[in-house]
């Protein structure tokens, strides 16, 4: 469905007002058909996922639960894995990284039974970002390097950039600042070109931290101002006023 697909593009770019409106249109149209299909799972689950992305996870829980039930009803493991990843994301946004990891691990197991390479990759990326949040930076460095390459091979540019930024974060945590700077340089340019504002804000926040460590206070200030600008713009999107409540974004500024 075109409106659901556009919603995902808008969400990746941090254009949450347009994303929410597009996804809501998709949900409304599909509910009118009163049929249960993979389109229903994508739209209803996607709506719940979007609400989580903008800091409204409590509002999205019922939609995610409904989508998971529907995915089981249509007996499609790829969609069960997809929604399970979204449920993990909802916990990740709330700061429950251990709970998120449990969902991601379950999603990976289910996705492995399918031929859906994109969902398999997403499950692995999610596991890596949860492990990073749980303090296992050293172990995820090689994993994220491989996942970035895998994403590029599948033509998933946004996923590749996301992996590169998480890789830079892991390298900073393991005190490999030179490698982190190298990863960030490419990731920032690609994130900006693709319009990935959340990913760009993460990269700029890491750049500020690295600049601060090396005594480049002016550069650090510029990067922090860019983070603030990006997050302010995203927060002003219709329906996204609570995005600052996301635990995974609170440390950016």
Structural notes for this entry:
The longest helix has 19 residues, at 217-235. The protein has 2 domains: 1-115, Serine Threonine Protein Phosphatase 5, Tetratricopeptide repeat; 135-240, Serine Threonine Protein Phosphatase 5, Tetratricopeptide repeat, CATH 1.25.40. It is built from 12 helices and no strands. Helix 9 packs antiparallel against helix 10 (177-194). The termini are far apart. With 253 residues, the chain is mainly alpha-helical. 51% of the residues are buried. The chain is globular and about 60 Å long. The model has no long low-confidence stretch (mean pLDDT 95).
Brief digest:
The protein is an all-alpha fold. The protein is built from twelve helices and no strands.
Structure summary, number of beta strands:
0
The gyration radius over C-alpha positions equals 18 Å
Task: Give the overall average pLDDT.
Answer: 95
- The H/E string reads HHHHHHHHHHHH
CATH architecture of the largest domain: Alpha Horseshoe
The CATH class assignment of the largest domain is Mainly Alpha
Keywords:
253 residues, Serine Threonine Protein Phosphatase 5, Tetratricopeptide repeat, 12 helices
